[in-house]
């Protein structure tokens, strides 16, 4: 991995500060005495450019953040089911009783992180830049000054979009205002006020970039400061217009006319459209390599949340068409069903199984791509989905018919074993039940991987470590796949058709996602001996095994599009959401979460893979400290500080409830 080439001393100082000590970064850019126009002049850059580059490096903004990602994976998966915690789906793991993510360990960070960030790190550099810009006489503002402040407005709009999606009402500072730096207090505004403002700001920003021309010298300076798109105007315009589209779809339940207006306005405008069109910064660009996996990077979150890394049945079977092959056998007079394998071997080649099966996920130790359901499996149904997975391991083993065999061997090279208890050793009729119970317990309690991701004897499919632990991965805050899916939904629901029919966008989204995940997988050059390094607990077979080939994404996308053609409108919207959730999975909880909440009204049900035993959460709750620090603000937000209260964009007043609620 090559580091970003830095020619500007100013930017070099920024990056060193961010990798060595976050406090230094804050002192240098967020403290007005730490950075000045005089320093900028000596560095040969605009004072505003410093705040711009600082903004791009803010934690959990355009890059990942260990703490925030950890909580979004842990608690977010309990809401959305992006990945499966088996112990919450089986009797061997926990009781079948209603639980929430509001009061268990660690969820303070889950509830509060976005709110805290938007009111501190995400906004502070923008306000300092705005103040500097406001202090420059209009006639002396350079092209770069205008460019940087315009892009800062874009970044502010993106910050507020994320925050208002999570909380509805947040302290909002108008574009053009330096806020508290000039004695102007932020006002608590909700989605109904914020969304029209930021949609308008995005349009204004695209207009500026459309008409702005930089000199060669200015362009070179911009490229040095822009660690997001390397000074590429077209990429910035794609990003801005795709954010407009995201916002337009988010308000479609409440402001459908605005949604349609934005679709019409975007005609002829560039949008994110390529597989590598992603707005995000890689950990390795802003964190010292030695600190990525074990300390500061998002991969630490994945390593510590190995129990979340199980694959979901929804993705593998229901979305990606990877179907188990079912066998049956009569044992003790009862017909028992089991999964002998799956259809991936032929389906990946002939275009009937999604190529991402082999790019995003790893099979169990026997080569089966079988995921786990979020529905409860209490063990009372002999032929439940989970039982059929576990039974497939032993049902044809001689141990069920040969009284002399008392140990069942399984795993890679038969490295794992189960010894029968005394009763089963003496009685063949008791062996099937004993083996099923033992394997269920091992899987539910993560004894097959010892709570480590990337081990070789896993009993169900897991996320593949090659793309997830590709340290060059740019955290996908927005991606071309989302843009294509938004255009598909807009066409299905009648908000407007842009650049093709819904089918075209749905098909292209799948093709782009396949290419994106294939590239993340095969481009990973890291190992246990590189810097940064793969975790030592991973098995080399998991680290080094790439897909057998790049499968024909176009063939599969056409297969999926033909199924799409036969669907009703609501089925199509559900399918579009499924692709969105699959594509972002553990990398981006927020976007599918917002989409799920707003689609409940249209679909009449929750499109996410909801756990039965976790309460659905309609919004994040505010930090308790707001009451003491801002009593006036608390008076505004406290009446709606309720995780059961739907946010405005959903168009609902009633909470969605799962099976146990």
What does this structure look like?
The chain is built from 31 helices and 10 strands. It has 661 residues and is mainly alpha-helical. Strand 7 and strand 8 (416-419) form a beta hairpin. A two-stranded antiparallel ribbon has the order 1-2. Strands 3-10 form a two-stranded antiparallel sheet. 48% of the residues lie in helices and 6% in strands. Pfam families: SusD-like_2. Keywords: Lipoprotein, Signal.
The number of helical runs is 31
Envelope shape: elongated
From the N-terminal CA to the C-terminal CA, the straight-line distance is 49 Å
Q: Could you report the average pLDDT, rounded to the nearest whole number?
A: 92
- Report the sheet-strand fraction: 5-15%
Number of strands: 10
């Amino acid at each position: 991995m090559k580091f970003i080439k830095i020619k500007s001393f100013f930017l070099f100082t920024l990056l060193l500060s961010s990798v060595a000590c976050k406090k230094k970064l804050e002192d240098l850019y967020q403290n007005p005495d730490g950075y000045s126009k005089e320093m900028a002049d000596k560095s040969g850059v605009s004072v505003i450019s410093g705040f711009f580059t600082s903004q791009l490096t803010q934690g959990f903004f355009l890059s990942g953040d260990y703490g925030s990602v950890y909580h979004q994976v842990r608690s977010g998966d309990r809401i959305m089911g992006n990945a499966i915690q088996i112990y919450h789906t089986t009797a061997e793991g926990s009781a079948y009783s209603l639980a929430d993510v509001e009061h268990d360990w660690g969820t303070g960070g889950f509830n509060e992180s976005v709110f805290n960030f938007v009111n501190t790190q995400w906004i502070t550099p923008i306000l300092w830049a705005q103040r500097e810009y406001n202090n420059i006489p209009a006639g002396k503002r350079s092209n770069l000054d205008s460019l940087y402040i315009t892009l800062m407005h874009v970044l502010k709009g993106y910050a507020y979009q994320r925050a208002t999606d999570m909380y509805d009402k947040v302290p909002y500072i108008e574009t053009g205002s330096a806020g508290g730096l000039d004695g102007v207090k932020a006002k608590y505004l909700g989605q109904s006020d914020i969304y029209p403002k930021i949609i308008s700001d995005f349009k204004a920003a695209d207009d500026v970039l459309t008409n702005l021309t930089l000199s060669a010298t200015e362009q070179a300076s911009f490229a040095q400061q822009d660690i997001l798109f390397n000074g590429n105007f077209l990429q910035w315009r794609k990003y801005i217009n795709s954010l407009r589209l995201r916002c337009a779809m988010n308000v479609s339940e409440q402001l459908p006319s605005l949604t349609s207006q934005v679709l019409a306005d975007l005609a002829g405008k560039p949008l994110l459209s390529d597989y590598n069109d992603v707005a995000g910064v890689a950990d390795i660009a802003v964190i010292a390599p030695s600190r990525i996996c074990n300390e500061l990077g998002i991969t630490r979150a994945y390593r510590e949340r190995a129990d979340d890394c199980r694959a979901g049945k929804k993705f593998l079977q229901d979305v990606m068409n990877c179907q188990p092959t079912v066998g049956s056998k009569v044992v003790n007079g009862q017909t028992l069903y089991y999964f002998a394998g799956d259809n991936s071997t032929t389906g990946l080649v002939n275009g009937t199984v999604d190529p991402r099966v082999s790019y995003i996920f790893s099979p169990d130790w026997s080569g089966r791509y079988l995921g786990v359901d979020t529905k409860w499996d209490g063990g009372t149904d002999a032929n439940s989905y989970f039982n059929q997975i576990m039974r497939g391991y032993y049902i044809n083993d001689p141990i069920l018919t040969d009284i002399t065999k008392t140990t069942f061997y399984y795993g890679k090279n038969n490295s794992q074993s189960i010894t029968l208890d005394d009763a089963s050793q003496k009685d063949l009729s008791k062996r099937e039940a004993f083996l099923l119970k033992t394997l269920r317990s091992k899987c539910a309690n993560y004894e097959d991987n010892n709570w480590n991701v990337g081990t070789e004897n896993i009993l169900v499919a897991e996320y593949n470590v090659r793309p997830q632990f590709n340290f060059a991965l740019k955290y996908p805050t927005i991606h071309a796949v989302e843009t294509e899916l938004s255009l598909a939904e807009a066409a299905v629901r009648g908000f407007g058709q842009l650049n093709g029919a819904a089918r075209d966008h749905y098909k292209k989204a799948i093709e782009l996602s396949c290419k994106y995940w294939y590239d993340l997988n095969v481009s990973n050059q890291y190992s246990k001996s590189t810097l940064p390094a793969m975790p030592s607990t991973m098995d080399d077979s998991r680290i080094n095994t790439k897909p057998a080939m790049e499968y024909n994404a176009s063939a599969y996308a056409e297969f999926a599009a033909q199924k799409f053609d036969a669907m009703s409108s609501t089925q199509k919207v559900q399918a579009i959401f499924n692709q969105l959730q699959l594509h972002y999975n553990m990398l981006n909880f927020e976007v599918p979460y917002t989409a799920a909440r707003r689609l409940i009204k249209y679909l009449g049900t929750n499109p996410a893979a909801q756990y039965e035993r976790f309460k659905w959460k309609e919004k994040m709750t505010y930090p308790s400290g707001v009451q003491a620090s801002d009593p006036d603000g608390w008076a505004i937000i406290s009446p709606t500080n309720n995780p059961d209260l739907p946010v405005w964009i959903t168009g609902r007043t009633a909470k969605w409830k799962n099976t146990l609620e």
